[in-house]
Amino acid sequence: MDAMEIPRLLPAAARLSLGVYRSLFPVAFAAMLPGFLVRMLRRGNYREKFGQRLGFYTKADRQRLAAGGWLWIHAVSVGEMLMGIKLARTLQAGDPGAKILLSTTTSTGYAVARAQIEGSGMELIYYPLDLASIVRRVLDLVRPAQLVMVDKELWPNMVAECFRRGIPLSVVNARLSPKSERGFRRWRRWTGPFFGMLERVCVQEPEDIARWETLGVRPEALVCTGSLKFDFAEGDFPRAREFRALLARVGVPEETPILLAGSTFPGEEAALGRVTRALRERFPDLFLIVVPRHVERTPEAAADLRGAGLQAALRSALPELPPGSPRPDALIVDTTGELRDWYALASVCFVGKSLCAHGGQNPAEPVLAGRPVVFGPNMENFEALVRQFLAVDGAVRVADEAGLLRETGALLADPARGEALVKAARGVLRAHLGANQRTADLLRTPASR
After folding, report:
1. Rounded average pLDDT over 391-417
2. What is the Cα–Cα distance from 166 to 175, expressed in whole angstroms?
3. How far apart are CA 363 and CA 350, in angstroms?
4. pLDDT tens across 109-122, in order?
């Protein structure tokens, strides 16, 4: 769909909400700026293409982007970007001439995307700051045919300006945490008009339709497509063999039992270190792999493991180590975009942000890798999926560190039980197979308004 030449008038409620947002945004941005800058400094590479965040591009970038007619897919960071790239490839497979533009917010997401799309014909930019003048400048240049947000990233100026120009804006793999839902409901008078301007919202579970409708999304805009994150072939872990060879260089052969903790948060590395030390009384060769959710926490994670009595190697250093190097007690994966393939090496997987933090990370990836899953009590971000897993005995939930020790030991001692957990959980995930294709088909079909 091409952008309309005559701008559409925003609904009255949206104009009021937008006015309030524009008056408050500079104050809120100034308050958040110090934390934002600290995160950029920690993650590095913040100077590269920084001007794109303000709508400024090099001459070469402007020449490429000015072609217009882009199908623009925005993904905040690494996890969302990997989903966005997979969707983009599905769209390209159905239409090799599709002009696809990807954008992201973080430098880590940008680095992963750049490596993944090399030679694909896709373009990549940083998502612009949501100030009206910046948004207009970017849309004037890019002139997208439509804009697709992965998960739930919505910014009022972008939503309003796309609506005004007749650019369809959709949310795919729509995710709504209980905390976000409560906030949007509390402020529905102000946020509802923006949800009402969305072209489509593709939700993951049937029960999500009613939740998004209560936020202001039009009923006819809602459709259940399944989860993009859960839709990939079992056994699709191309780098697992490479990682297995890296472990062998430091004396961790294939038969070694491995406890792998994915997307960990502060406090969880220390707990996992203590659990590993205790389990080694029964499983002397047990090896711990920790993948912090934020790679800049690597020094902190290493210190916590040392405090628990474990010496950890860094994944980034493994290729440089000579074969036969002394075996460490643990490995910290200080690289990005690799977690899914590391899961394939595990004996038991712990899902981070669930024991010492709230929200939880994705429990489906280790299941698709064929590995049994343990998580803590705080899985709010994936509560619907967790309920389904637990209902069929497809995962193990623990209340605390003692429970993690007990249940991990039980799974290491009984591989058959782990296989049964995986089989049951995979049955739950089958409903999501084909989500990428269903979503791509919808994006190719103009919605009626």
Report:
1. 98
2. 25
3. 9
4. 999 999 999 999 99
Using DSSP, state whether 229 is helix, strand or coil. Answer: coil
Domain ranges of the chain: 12-231+434-444, 240-432
Phi then psi dihedrals of residue 349, to 5 deg: -115, 135
* CA distances for 41 relative to 38, 100, 108, 153, 362, angstroms: 5, 30, 12, 23, 27
pLDDT of residue 44: 61
Cβ burial of 423 (10 Å; 0-12, 13-18, 19+) is: middle
Residue among 125, 123, 120 at smallest CA distance from 92: 120
What 3-state class would DSSP assign to 445? coil
**What pLDDT score was predicted for residue 4?**
45
Mean pLDDT over residues 273-279, rounded? 98
First to last CA, the chain: 13
DSSP state, residue 279: H
How high does pLDDT run on average in the chain?
Answer: 92
Give residue-wise pLDDT tens across range 174-190: 998 888 999 999 999 99
DSSP annotation of 207: T
**What tens digit of pLDDT does each residue of 8-49 get?**
899 999 999 999 999 998 888 777 777 767 766 666 666 678
Q: Is the dihedral of CA 113, 115, 121, 123 positive or negative?
A: positive
Sign (positive/negative) of CA torsion 397, 402, 406, 411? positive
Q: What is the predicted pLDDT for the residue at 39?
A: 67
Determine the pLDDT at residue 262: 97
Residues annotated as catalytic are: 80
How far apart (Å, rounded) are the C-alpha atoms in residues 14 and 7? 15
> Quick one: 448 exposed, middle or buried, by C-beta within 10 A (0-12, 13-18, 19+)?
exposed
Q: For residue 141, which phi and psi values (nearest 5 degrees)?
A: -80, -50
Residue 382 to residue 253: CA distance in whole angstroms: 34
The span from the CA of 329 to the CA of 57, in Å, is 47
Length reported for the chain:
449
d(CA 126, CA 51): 9
Whether the domain at 12-231+434-444 and the domain at 240-432 fall into the same CATH topology: yes
Tell me which amino acid residue 172 is: V
- Give the CATH class of 12-231+434-444: alpha beta
Assessment of whether the complete model's pTM goes beyond 0.90: no
Q: Pull the structure tokens for residue 428.
A: 């739950």
Which residue shows structure tokens 């007690």? 329
Which range among 91-105, 126-140, 312-326 shows the weakest confidence by mean pLDDT? 312-326
CATH architecture for the domain at 240-432: 3-Layer(aba) Sandwich (3.40)
